Amino acid sequence: MAMALSAFAPQEIYFNKYYHDDSDSLKDSYCGYYGANEQFRSKLTAKELVFQVLKNRVDNIDVDRCCPGAEDPFFVADMGEIYRQHLRWKMNLSRVKPFYAVKCNPDPEILRLMASLGNGFDCASKAEIDVALSTGVDPSRIIYAQPCKTKSYIRYAAQMGVKQMTFDNADELYKIKTNFPNAELYLRILTDDSTSLCRLSMKFGASLDVTRPLLELARELDLNVVGVSFHVGSGAEDPKAFCKAVQDARVVFDQAVEVGHEPHTLDVGGGFSEDRFERFAVILGQALDTYFPPHIRIIAEPGRYYVASAFTLAVNVIARRIIQDPMDPSGNTHRLYLNDGVYGNFSNTIFDHQHPEPQILSCLDDSVASPLSHRPSQEIAYSIWGPTCDGIDIIAEHAILPGVVGVGDWLYFENMGAYTRCSATRFNGFTDNHEVIYISSEAGARALLNYRT
Ligand SMILES: *Cc1c(COP(=O)(O)O)cnc(C)c1O
Question: What is its EC number (predicted)?
């Protein structure tokens, strides 16, 4: 699956750098915090690098002659982006140790980089525990952060030495008592997740009126409660959700001490995203310093934050239909059919409430402006569909692209790293295992992963 970098003449790529100091939209989201200029600059360079790799690849595919599937969608994964996100985390939340949420994207190269950056892993199943352990990390760097676990998986965790796990109900405590009495337990509490994209608190979390009885039951069963955990919901909008959750966690910490436990760790879960990270970090950091003295260890379970922007997906236009608009004979509607859709990597449109935005990668219509030029262009509205026979398989109802896109052309979608491939299916016989071309726009990540330049 991993393709050797050398296949793409990396020397050419790495020295082929452009600087666009006038790219205002990107700059806007990067201003106003420490290190912003450097990060802005390296991110722009990285985007151009990714574009070159995408372009080199599709320029070598001839859809009129190629073998079946040679025009399948593929990803370019920039491990340098994950590395930059890690530095950003360290700069803004140095007190909090990340345990990467494996479910978000269990790609082996991602896990390898996380392990070498010193991060831990948040796993929710036997298979996730296995992939995390396969990186060679000590089992103490894994938390089994699923409050409702399969009994046989609890025994498996015990066998592998994965001691840290969460619970939020009494049945779970009895299960843990019989299957892994020496486990190190985190009581997961309910949060206000009403502003998040993917709400989790209707499924998991103990409310504050049941935390004390649960802690007492754990004590009676002679189980070891080492901390409290929460999750404010994935794609959280409101940083204040963290404040309330940290305050509530303090209450439950005190209850645990009163009942006779010795809690030492707070787990602040996931919910961080790329664009709002600094604002969240300031508010969370202040809440932590207010309520949790320095000897309390703080961990987190970020998923989306680390990987969303690292993966870019290239997709081929396999069919097109131009329909006369009966209401407006001068305007046609354009439908594009791609070889990936909501049953594939665009599963994020359904499960993760995303709206992926197409951009043109290569296009036979040479009046089309490339992202690297500033030519004026003709804007056309398209609806964009997936390859299966199901009508639900639509990626975007209304997308504007700068020119006429036809059969055989390529589109690309940025920010396709989180909750995409991992929830893809093989419905209608399309693959869920697309090739990934790994590159790194950062020398640091290149060195950690042993990529050639
Ligand atoms: C999904 C999940 C995460 C990761 O959430 P992100 O929003 O992607 O950061 C972390 N912890 C738990 C328990 C989860 O279920």
Answer: 4.1.1.17
